[in-house]
Amino acid sequence: MIGGGSSVDLTRFRRFGNWMFRTLMNFLHRTSYTDLCYGYFGFRRGTVDRLDLRSSGFEIETEISIKAHYAGLRTAEIPSIESARHNGASNLSAFRDGWQILRTIVQAAAEDSVPAHSHLGAMAIIGLGLGVLMALGAIALPQGAANVAGMDAIPAAGPAPPVAALLPITINPVDDAYVAGELPNDNFGSDPSLEADASPVRESYVKFDLRALAFQGVAQATLRMYVTNGSGGAFDLRDVADSAWTEGAITFNNKPAKGNVLASFTPGTATGRWLEVDITSAAAGKAGSFMSAALQTSSTDALGFNSSEAASNHLELVIQLLGSTPGPSATVTSSPAPTPTGTATPTPSTVPTSAATVVPGTTTLNPIDDAYVAGELPDDNFGSDPSLVVDASPVRESYLKFDLRPLGGLSVSRATLRMFVTNGSGGAVNLKAVSDNSWTEGSLSFDNRPAKGAVLKTFTPGTTIGVWLQVDLTSAVAGKAGSLMSGVLDTASSDGFAFNSSEAGTNRVELVVQTGGSQTPGPTASPTRTPSTSATATPTRSATATPTRTATPTPTPTRTPTPTPTAPPAGTPFSFGVAGDLGANSNTSAVFNAAHSAGLNFFLPIGDFSYSDVTPESSWCNFVKQRMGSSFPVELISGNHEDDGPDGQIAKFAACLPNLLGGLSGAYSKEYYFDYPASTPLARFINISPNLTFPGQGTYSYSAGSSHYNWTANAIDQARARGIKWVVVSMHEYCITLVSASCSIGPDIMNLLISKRVDLVLQAHDHAFNRSKQLALRTGCSRVNPGSYDPDCVVDTGSDGTYGRGAGTVIMTVGVGGKSINSVETRDPEAPYFTRWMGSNVNPTYGFFKISVSSTSLSGRFVRGAGGSFTDTFAIQ
Q1: How many Cα atoms occupy the beta-carbon half-sphere of 342 within 13 Å?
Q2: Of 512 and 407, more confident
Q3: Is the peptide bond before 677 cis (omega within 30 degrees of 0)?
């Protein structure tokens, strides 16, 4: 019986039998289980097929334990208590069922080629067990047989004493949600973030189910929050007596009352790390029941952290039971690995963990390298992208490399490539052999990709997403067993196919190999296939999970997955995407899918979001999250369709797509700025709302001397004073563009940006694309006047795609995010200010602009989503 667990049904006879079976099991099968016969199993539905279970009696528990081990499944044992049964009698026959368990353990050892010396040891354990049972009187010689069944009536010896160090229990909330004061009837239970703020009012509610701890003493309880927006303010966690609320129904108007303060703390301004709050007293008092709490603050410096709906690093409560010492992890595997300090307790899952050797059975391998290449970006590398993509237009090819050296000497009976589909396709996809294994995911590009060989398999993925696609590769894997195997996916179809790479947070591409006995003697190796949680929150695009996927006698790569982009290290180059006038149609979907595959760190939708293609606002947010990822930073700035309607309210869009980068100043989605990367930034992003009208605030005017004008000027000056290399200003509406329309934002704010030589101005509203020449105020040009052209205001035409750094301002309209494209008027008086353009009358193409930022250059390229074939690139350097 696992330490901390107990059962009133555990007689002395059963206790000894459990010990004997457990000892025999661990000896023969190299496991480290602490209990085989008491408790319950919890696993995902898909695990059943992998276990191939045959038993129908009490021995099914033992069979599950054995086959889970050989399937490489990660397992955890958690203490539980079995109370007295309410009705009826036990169906267990100690001798009959014990014999079935013994036969299952020994038969599995024979099938799995356990060495002969282990069988001799097993016989010794069985003999010892029989001798002890005879001494106890449980069995006797045939001439004086005792009533074996009667032994079941011996009173229980009581719970097993606790072991020296009980492992901690990690619990995620059964309900969690925040409420918004200005949206009193709205629910945010499906949001991946929880927030606390005084202006606008945000309060977060959490509920934990502690009923399983009814008879346990709580030594320590720690609430762990993964911070996405830090704060220097003080926060209170308050008791909530009413636990009837649910995350799907709670609103500001119906939220339950708050009680006493359970804990007060100041989070600190750092983001991308775990914040721990001690709530031992509260959890101990609630053991055996539900525990609800609310987080609130009187500070306007907001705190944001991951909810249980986030893709990773969920909110959790870590509980240490009495009679134990704190341990780093609750996971028990067949080959325990050190768990870094400060790491969350992993939840038991069916993801394969390390095995001592590859033995006949089922082995699951993730690639040691995987990446796609892009035809129109021949020198770019996408090895850190969480997706693999295959397409003919634009050209995408995906490369995979598996280490099959641990399979040397084993016969391969079946091998299946499993891909979790994120974008389905009705087109035919080819998997081709690649003989050159010297490529790596960190350096692969379209120009240097290795040559493709013969077709290994052709398949049609189908259009369903969110499912596992399985492709049989038995012949190819059998031929490569004992070596590295590379392959490439390509297609002649323009219906793109995408699936999770090994950098995805979950459901990574994998090769499942079933092997039989040895063909010829070969080396054994230890494929490590499960990500372990990283102790250090390194500010990179990756999350905190670091899988070590293959450990062979020679060192092999250790790589970091990237389910959620985060800020790169200080001064490291990064990229972002931008587009406006989006909607929620097939063109919009294509644009977001292209953005998802582009290796961005964040995306800026610059106004006019849903156009009521989907309602309410949360539906559009979900539309975006389904394509970009629920935790990917999509940083909003309002347009005229949602400032005060007619297609929703910006406050509601901002509530379901909140700021995930942290560290912003101002009013998110209306007028704010942030520096990126946060620690030592390369760029400041200033987002403003000229000519937009917000409920209760009126129209934002940026005329000279106004508060909004001065705020913008100060934000630019502060960036320059801090030595930030680049300044980018975004807004929805425009002053000059290639349509016959007035300067809606007002000439003052445009001339302010040009006078301060803001590097790049991004705008939309005009459903087209254009890129201006580089403009500056200088001798002969004291002001850029809309409705006319002054060549003295142009310092560089940018006709060759390059501009001089610091020489002036480039204005770019990117209003082709999905809604219908309008024509460009090349005879407009302002047309000479522009060097590139596209519209309904000039190669209409839906897409976004990918902009890459380094310490020496700010460059960009137009990325197509749907429609035509327009391209554009530029660089300021």
Answers
A1: 12
A2: 512
A3: yes
